[in-house]
Write a structure and sequence with these properties.
The complex is a heterodimer of chains A (474) and B (211).
Chain A: H1 6-13, E1 15-17, E2 24-27, E3 30-34, H2 39-47, E4 58-61, H3 78-94, E5 97-99, H4 109-115, E6 124-127, E7 141-144, H5 147-156, E8 158-161, E9 165-172, H6 181-192, E10 200-205, H7 207-210, H8 214-222, E11 231-233, H9 238-244, H10 253-263, E12 276-281, E13 288-290, E14 298-300, H11 314-327, E15 342-345, H12 353-363, E16 374-377, H13 382-390, H14 393-399, E17 403-404, E18 425-428, E19 443-446, H15 449-458
Parallel strand pairs in A: 3-4, 3-6, 4-5, 6-7, 9-10, 9-12, 10-11, 15-16, 15-18, 16-17, 18-19
Antiparallel strand pairs in A: 1-2, 2-8, 13-14
Chain B: E1 6-13, H1 21-24, H2 44-47, E2 48-49, E3 53-54, E4 70-72, H3 85-93, E5 97-100, H4 105-112, E6 117-120, H5 123-135, E7 140-144, E8 149-152, E9 157-159, H6 164-172, H7 176-181, H8 184-194
Parallel strand pairs in B: 1-4, 4-5, 5-6
Antiparallel strand pairs in B: 1-7, 2-3, 7-8, 8-9
Chain lengths: 474, 211
């Protein structure tokens, strides 16, 4: 057999049916759903009198609109309440596992999937959410789908898909201190552009990627979609197997060994070809900060807000001009001079226990700057929250002036009441700095958890590399 | 799904690259239970001032683009969130086709599932169309999926390529799920073979959650 990439191996293992000149029918191993994009799919299913084919392979959670304050109070937002109720009803009717807002396992869909071991190497995983690419960190083929496709998966456990092209992104060498997984992926997006990965499934390789923990790999794969890629993946290795062993939905005993043997086959063959290749040197990377209104508008913390005139392409120039107006930034302003109104540590990109540990290390014994109106820490899941509280991280954050919240998507998408007010500026560990993303008129700068933490303390961006005692805080 | 065969209509231009789906349907409108009525809120934050007063500076509010049904756009249209509410809103507003140099993957897929035709043309062709739309009041084009051409009444003619399967589904207004269910026996036999791998089996801890 011809040498194959990891992507091709997983693809081939899931083809139910293929015909020349037609998309393939591929099997879906795990289907994750949430309240926001599923109601219309169930409605469609019902209208057509169809059933859910394999309810045990679908997992539901409430995350997008949940309150991060008090869950015991009635949901004030009637539209959100109706979606929660619809999800509950639909799961009950079709026999789907639901982690509702009161479940101890509740959290952001892309945090709980891996955490519970629902996400496993070699699986195809889909969800009505673009950040499904997160799960690719385990060597799974995971991508976001629309509501009609969601309905298709419910009804058939399959999807009609065209095969994507493959892209290899290699990050060579060791990551310098203060440079996190978030900085790696922001640098990648800065390099390839937000449409650079369109039509491709990315495989991340190289020493700097191998050196990341599973959580770091999830951060990188999570933002694959911000580079336009259909999915991002990292081949599973000992780090992956060690993370998975013992998690609730992972096979045990002899079955775990059988699984590991299978997972070990999930690597790209030595002579396999990729359709595109990108290379970065880890040593050249620095903490990154976005200055514009998409994740590709990004630069190093030591640099300045770019002058739109410096863009050769007139289309890019116009986009930069518009972005600077929206962001209320002047060309040439040092990034470190940008002051902030709010800080958000959370989202499916950066809300896992290692993110919180790293941020806590930065803020321990210090206090949020007076000029900062709000600094939020929103754990990605209740499991993360409980673990963090056990370690006393909640106390560290609270003592430093942060608010410690319950799990959910929160101010990444602002569908609950955690909103960035118009005209205000945030340092956010989330994934999108689109206009209005965190609230209409809000201005978002994407950064790593340690950069967000340090910005909260100083009231403006700072180069985290200049801070001491950062060992392990990346 | 309503078939798309051929459509003639007024062109409205959105001259921005990387228009993300958050702009098409902001998050506060994602709390719906149905697919209906999103046209009113399409491009909400750009289209309305406070109190839902139409923003006179936004192109879709120009009187000359009232009733437009072909959306002319720039590269990487529909990037970001997978929300299918975006094509629902574009369709419900009255657009039947989009003309752009490129689209984000998920958005592109979602269009086809709803009978909205995203036509891909070259950068030069799109630039020319922007010029024509700008300089001709009431500029209309015909998008013919059968023949795979975009034409105007000044004799301009652009052919485009599209995947034959997608084209066929749109022309016939086919429901994907119905098509797949025809292959149920294939799915069943695949499952028997595929699910022998322990980690691909039905998850073990199905009763794990504690609600």
């Amino acid at each position: 057999m011809a040498p194959r990439t990891l992507y091709e191996k997983i693809w081939d293992a899931h083809v139910v049916r293929e015909e020349p000149r037609q998309p393939s029918l591929i099997y879906i191993d795990r289907h994750l759903i949430h309240e926001g994009t599923s109601p219309q799919a169930f409605a469609g299913l019902k209208a057509a009198g169809r059933k859910v084919r394999r309810p045990e392979l679908t997992f539901a959670v409430m995350d997008h609109s949940v309150s991060t304050k008090n869950r015991d109070l009635p949901v004030v937002d009637l539209h959100a309440a109706a979606q929660f109720e619809a999800l509950e009803q639909n799961c009950k009717e079709y026999g789907i596992n639901l982690f509702d807002m009161h479940s101890q396992n509740q959290g952001i869909v892309h945090v709980i999937g891996p955490e519970l071991g629902i996400t496993q190497p070699g699986c195809t995983i889909v969800c009505g959410d673009s950040h499904t690419s997160t799960h690719g960190a385990f060597g799974a083929l995971a991508f976001g789908i629309g509501t009609t496709e969601l309905e298709h998966v419910l009804a058939t456990q399959c999807l009609t898909q065209f095969k994507s092209k493959s892209m290899k992104i290699e990050v060579r060498g060791k990551r310098p201190s203060g440079v996190t997984a978030k900085d790696i992926v922001l640098a990648i997006i800065g390099k390839i552009g937000i449409g650079g990965g369109t039509g491709h499934v990315v495989e991340y390789i190289g020493e700097a990627v191998r050196g990341l923990s599973m959580e770091g790999r999830m951060t990188v794969c999570n933002m694959s979609i911000e580079g336009g890629a259909r999915a991002g993946m990292v081949a599973p290795d000992e780090t992956t197997f060690a993370y998975l062993e013992g998690r609730p939905f992972v096979p045990r005993g002899k079955d775990f060994q059988i699984a590991v043997d299978f997972w070990k086959s999930l690597v790209t063959d030595p002579d396999a070809n990729y359709d595109a290749t990108v290379e970065l040197q880890a040593q050249e990377l620095a903490p990154m900060v976005t200055w514009g209104t998409n994740p590709g508008m990004v630069t190093q913390v030591t640099s300045r807000v770019p002058d739109p005139l410096s863009f050769k392409d007139p289309v890019d120039r116009k986009a930069a001009e518009r972005a600077l107006v929206y962001m209320d930034l002047k060309p040439g302003t040092p990034i470190e001079d940008i002051s902030l109104d709010r800080v958000f540590i959370g989202s499916c990109t950066n809300s896992r226990i290692e993110d919180l540990r790293a941020a806590a290390k930065v803020v321990a014994g210090k206090h949020v700057a007076k000029s900062v109106k709000q600094a939020l820490v929103v754990p990605g899941s209740r499991t993360v929250k409980t673990a963090a509280e056990k370690e006393g991280l909640d106390t560290i954050f609270r003592d430093a002036g942060f608010e410690w919240r319950d799990a959910g998507c929160s101010m990444c998408i602002a569908m609950n009441d955690d909103v960035l007010p118009s005209g205000e500026r945030s340092a956010s560990t989330s994934n999108r700095n689109f206009e209005g993303r965190q609230g209409k008129g809000g201005r978002t700068h994407l950064v790593s958890p340690i950069m967000a933490a340090a910005a909260a303390i100083e009231g403006h961006f700072v180069d985290i590399r200049k801070w001491k005692n950062l060992d392990g805080a990346e | 799904m309503e078939p798309f065969i051929k459509h003639t209509g007024l062109v409205a231009p959105i001259d921005r690259v990387n228009v993300d789906t958050d702009q098409m349907v902001p998050k506060q409108f994602l709390k719906a239970l149905t697919r209906d009525g999103f046209g009113r809120i399409l491009f909400y934050d750009w289209r309305y001032l406070s109190g839902e007063k139409p923003n006179p500076d936004f192109v879709l509010n120009y009187p000359r683009f009232e009733g437009a049904s072909v959306l002319l756009a720039q590269a990487n249209f529909g990037c970001g969130s997978s929300r299918e509410h975006a094509p629902w809103a574009i369709l419900d507003y009255g657009f039947r086709a989009i003309l752009a140099p490129s689209y984000a993957d998920i958005f592109y897929n979602n269009c086809f599932k709803n009978g909205l035709l995203p036509v891909t043309l070259t950068n030069e062709q799109i630039d020319e169309l922007f010029k024509r739309t700008e300089s001709n009041q009431g500029y209309r084009v015909t998008v013919d999926l059968q023949q795979q051409i975009v034409t105007d009444d000044q004799g301009q003619r652009y052919s485009f390529t599209i995947d034959p399967f997608r084209r066929d589904c749109l022309l016939r207004g086919l429901d994907d799920i119905g098509l797949t269910l025809v292959h149920e026996p294939d799915i069943s036999s695949f499952e028997k073979k595929h699910l022998r791998v322990p980690s691909l089996q039905v998850p073990l801890d199905i009763k794990y959650h504690s609600n």
